[in-house]
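Contributing new records

If you add data, match the layout below exactly. Sequence lines come first and carry their own label; structure lines follow with theirs. Keep one chain per record. Anything else will be rejected by the validation script.
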Amino acid sequence: MSDGYGRVGRLLILLMTAASDHTPLILSPYIEANAGRYVEALKSAQQRLEWAEIIGFMADAITGMGRDLPLYRLSNPEP
C-alpha cells in the first residue's frame, strides 16, 4: 500500500482490539498477500457503498490469519 492509509488502518485495528482487552489481530500478512482483492473491496465500499465485499474480505483475513498464525510466527520470530 504505497499511500500509507492501509498501514494506518491496520494500526487502528490493532489499537482498537488492544484497547478493548481483545488479542490484537495481525492481518497485515494476509492483506498484503491479497492486496488486489483488498483494494477492490475497499473501492466497492467507498465508491458504491457496497459493504459485503469488504466484510467478506475481513472475515477471510481473520480466519486466514487464525489458520496461518503458527506459520507466521515461525517465519517472523520475536526479537
